[in-house]
Amino acid sequence: MDIKTAFLYGSIKEEVYLEQPEGFGIYDQESHVCRLKKALYGLNQAPRAWYERIDSYLMKLGFTRSEANPNLYFKVIDEKPLILVLYVDDLFLTSADPLIQKCKRELAFEFEMKDLGLMHYFLGLEVWQKPGEIFLSQGKYVVKILEIFGMVDCKLVTTLMELKLKKLSGSAAGPVL
Predict the structure, then answer these.
(1) Under 8 Å CB-to-CB from 38, ≥6 apart: which residues?
(2) pLDDT tens for residues 156-175?
């Protein structure tokens, strides 16, 4: 799920002023400034204000924030876990489908959201999902690293570790050092 214009939901506690934006100035009051009441993108306080807003709403919905990771929330409903991971303005939900749908409705009541469907890519991980299966890969990341170091056309070399593993599994094709 993607929260649209997430940072604009945050309220700022400090007094923040900015010059009147070009085209919005009032005649004979060009020296006046605007006081912000809400967070704006680009404002240093905006990410913290957004996090405080979503955190308080998730707590209101009955989620518990993980002590190990403050962006991981969970709650148990009828002995079924509902897990929510927050990454800036993206939310990832996992649970039984009815719990996910209910949570999406509750979140959409408070925030304008876009359902991005199943996760396909997250923090450098490629994700493929089938019923009962999840496959993770870092293929795109590996290719990017090879491109950065000019090694896309490099030749494969068997490492000593691979040779030892092959020997242990009984599939060594040649002499092992």
Answers:
(1) 8, 10, 11, 12
(2) 777 887 777 778 776 545 54
